[in-house]
Amino acid sequence: MKKYSAFFLAIALFYSCKNGNNTSINNTVSADSGSTKQTIEKKANAISAQSIFMLADTFKTQHNNNFVLASLEGKPTVVGMIFTNCGYACPRLTSDMKNIADRLKANRGKVNFLLVSFDSERDTPAQLQKFAKQMELDSAWILLHGSDETVRTLSVLLNVQFEKDAEGNFSHSNLITVLDKQGLLSFQKEGLEADHAETLAKINELMN
Amino acid sequence: MKIISSIIFLFISIAFVNAQSLRGNIPEKKMIKIPASDFKTFYVSKTNKPIVVNAFSMDEYAVTNAEYLEFVKANTVWSRSKVNRLFADVNYLKYWESDFDIGRSNKNIYNSPVVNVSWFAARAYCKWKGKRLPTLAEWEVAGNAPPKNIAYTSVTDYIMKWYEKPPLPVLPNVKSTYQNIYGLYDMNGLVWEWTFDFNSFISTGDSRNTTNDNTNLFCAGASINVTNREDYAAFLRYGFRGSLKGNYCINSLGFRCAKNINIK
Fold first, then answer.
1. Which of A102, A108, A132, B259 is the most buried if burial means most Cβ atoms within 10 Å?
2. CATH 3.30.565.10: does it fit domain A47-207?
3. Which pLDDT tens digit goes with each residue over A79-94?
4. Is B78 close to A167, i.e. CB distance below 8 A?
């Protein structure tokens, strides 16, 4: 009997939690198709309207698989925007993120690590895979290639500034972003070789 | 027979009315061809090469309230009450009477630029029209062309005069300022305009600075790397863009659309 009541209590709790957002009319933006779609989400875990996961565009991973941001749901995500021809700042940014990953120790499997390239032209999935090997990034890391439009949209959502010069290189802000399990922007830290204590504290808080 | 033909007639007229309402009553606006050119960013290092801007076409004037209303009617997710806050902040279309009504008291601004629209909204509008937002480089090339129908020969002088003036209580209609040598209206002097890559980084190459290089432009004593030190107008424009976010809706910021020119 005790077992059953616990079960019912769990169900009741579950329902009360999901009531807030179980049916919402969402306005998603897709840069790929160029259309604004109205989707009626009836899933219990409907994406929050403010979530970065509202960007419905399809990316390609370093393994040449299709990828939508919504598939990051369930774990907090650490995001950096880079380009792999970058001489100095990008390996640094990637190293900073690796450093965060290392300091998570046993918990690192509970966090997504995402690198999105500005360079739609040169950073093909194959090039991203090469970069992942070179930087010794393990399977917890997702490296993404997207169209100009898609990448620009993501940069706007993440408040990352970037610009392509005449040689095809990029000037950009060095921002590490932490998204919560639902894709809400929770924390950002600007700068290379910054102290990541605050970032780590935030990730730990979001894991639970 | 009569019944059938009247039914057919009814269907045709319904279809016709539908097509009419979808297209709207506002004629397609003229687009102006802007020839290819080199664009030297306002803020460059000595090593920076100019960016090649291909020929493109651009709306003759900014998107008006009346035009934008048609878009909202056809895409209700972009109405004021339904829009997602991620894509447009609380100031979105705030001066309109309601979701689908610009308002009687606003009748003087039906043909004025729509403002209080976000980057996401502006982009969605242009897509709906089969167009896109101009890039920053395209906008600068088009916007820096000299006026042809006013006393000013320098765009900068004209803009500085505009910045000096307090904002008017009612935003003037499109085509109320000047036309430039390309034939574009109001590129300066009416509203600021969104560009596709408004969030461009104002720097060059890899930045060794831990934050960003804007400090060279805005804080470091003299603006040493600015191509034209006299160009305060551009200085303000770049600074303004740098302060924007994609969902900001501001009462002095509108947009116009651009399109590629297909080379056959």
1. A132
2. no
3. 999 999 876 666 889 9
4. no
